[in-house]
Amino acid sequence: MEEIKFLKPTWAITLKVWWSLVWRSCLYGGLAGGIFGGLFGGIAGGMLAPVLGLDVRKSAEIFGQIFGGLAGLLIGIWVIKIVLSKEYKDFKIALIAKE
Q1: What gap in Å lies between CA 57 and CA 65, rounded to an integer?
Q2: Using CA atoms, how far apart are residues 61 and 63, in angstroms rounded to an integer?
Q3: What confidence tens digit (pLDDT) does each residue in 4-28 have?
Q4: How far apart are CA 46 and CA 59, in angstroms?
Q5: 92 — phi, psi (to 5°)?
Q6: Half-sphere exposure of 65 (CA within 13 A, CB side)
Q7: Model-level pTM?
């Protein structure tokens, strides 16, 4: 078994991991928020507006925010899983159990 070489979390490594999280979160979160928030939230809001006694626009806005927020939350968790599994050029992130 090869010996583990531990790296200190330098600013360069921190920036690489941060950027890896940020661009994926923005891209995937934006797409999921637009699809689930805009499309499905809008449809659900439009259908439920009469039941809730709200204006269709207001209802679609509320449900769009709820659906978009939930999609963003799930995508954020998924992006962290991707980044934790990624192999970078000079390092990979490893989770080590405490003894």
Answers
A1: 12
A2: 6
A3: 888 999 999 999 999 999 999 999 9
A4: 6
A5: -140, 155
A6: 5
A7: 0.80
